[in-house]
Give the backbone structure.
Amino acid sequence: SQTIHQWPATLVQPVGSPLSLECTVEGTSNPNLYWYRQAAGRGLQLLFYSVGIGQISSEVPQNLSASRPQDRQFILSSKKLLLSDSGFYLCAWSPGANVLTFGAGSRLTVL
Amino acid sequence: AQKVTQAQTEISVVEKEDVTLDCVYETRDTTYYLFWYKQPPSGELVFLIRRNSFDEQNEISGRYSWNFQKSTSSFNFTITASQVVDSAVYFCALSEALSGYSTLTFGKGTMLLVSP
């Protein structure tokens, strides 16, 4: 069966520091991968999605970037965090145009 | 542009009461999918149901039921005989059906509090 892993689960970072959140999927190949952000406890916003290695589509221009170095690995990064980057980040995968399965999330607090 | 509206920010009920969560959507697509997800306090989103735009049959799964009405662009979710474990934030979402990926547009969610 397929599983999705996200880490770290929680992160507290100072303003201006870098960020790296990692997501991996097991038990499937060539999944579509997604990063969503949930700010202030509500409202899920799509940040990035990827339909293949090296293919990244950005939905919202911001201080973040994403990369897909391997088929089942999706990384969310920032060179310098802002206070507004605080939130709950959710990785998800889907086998094509289908139901999204979400990871457990990474809670980021920028101080 | 697609839009999903969940007008109810928070609902409080007492255990065993029935509760309906409203969802209204906007899309120009003729083919699309509608979803409901549950987010318990742990944070992980749990898939509940997917409906395509051609299937207007209502669905029942245990205590959960969904009413899809294309004429009013609504996809409402009813929990019968609510339980404390139903306490969570519930999200309605919409996606296009034609692309090879699923970029869901979520509503802002409805927080359901079920007290004993």
About this structure: The two ends of chain B are 41 Å apart (CA to CA). DSSP finds no helices and twelve strands in chain B. The CA atoms of residues 18 and 80 of chain B lie 4 Å apart. Chain B touches chain A at residues 35, 37, 42-47, 50, 89, 91, 93, 95, 97-106, 108-109 (CB under 8 Å).
